[in-house]
Design brief:
Structural class: alpha/beta
Shape: globular
Radius of gyration: 16 Å
Distance between the termini: 19 Å
Strand order of the largest sheet: 3-2-1-4-5-6
Helix content: 40-55%
Strand content: 5-15%
Number of helices: 7
Length: 193
């Protein structure tokens, strides 16, 4: 039996509208098409986790309790669309803290892989920033740069080379579906030999 595959998602600019240091749960707004793409992934049996850098906590702009309310609101909006997350992993540190959990370092992804029993090399990482693509690259995952959030600017600057550049999560989900179907056909063909 193969292990469940996972998609690792950035939060701001990938799933929800980018807002500088989002601190109000009422301002959590899903990016158009994100929920349908995530629902498609859920329906395929793929696990979904969010890994997000939240230095606003480390900077003292707001506390962890406020961040928990934001993530509760995110889950509510997604669940209303039939989407369920397997986890939200966050780094509350500032870049100056030099921690192992801040993207692009793979600390949180490795923790999630251990807790949820998935192969980090076999996962798909979707995000709108250089640090998201570098995170995926650091563990050998398949990477998707979305053009939402900061993604269009990142793609135009060509400072990082993702495996795929897509308009949003929905397009990434379609590609992942095709990739998984191709893998399954290959495994079936090999089993017949």
């Amino acid at each position: 039996m193969t292990r469940r595959r996972f998609v690792v998602l950035d939060r701001d600019g990938t799933i929800i509208v980018e807002r500088q240091y989002l601190s109000d749960p009422c301002q959590v707004e899903l990016i158009p098409g994100a929920a349908s793409g995530l629902r498609q992934l859920n329906e395929m049996g793929v696990g979904l986790i969010v890994i997000t850098n939240q230095s606003a906590v480390g900077r003292g702009f707001f506390d962890k309790a406020r961040l928990d309310l934001i993530h509760q609101r995110l889950r509510e909006l997604l669940e209303a669309e039939g989407v369920y997350l397997d986890g939200i992993y966050l780094c509350p540190h500032t870049p100056e803290d030099n921690c192992q959990c801040r993207k692009p370092r793979p600390g949180l992804l490795k923790l999630a892989a251990q807790e949820l029993n998935f192969d980090s090399q076999a996962c798909f990482v979707i995000g709108d920033k250089v640090c998201d693509i570098e995170l995926g690259r650091s563990v050998g995952a398949t990477t998707f740069l979305v053009r939402t959030g900061y993604g269009a600017q990142v793609a135009a600057n060509a400072v990082v080379t993702p495996d795929y550049v897509v308009d949003g999560v929905e397009e990434a989900a379609h590609i992942i579906q095709h990739l998984l179907a191709a893998e399954e056909r290959t495994m079936t063909d090999e089993a017949r030999r």
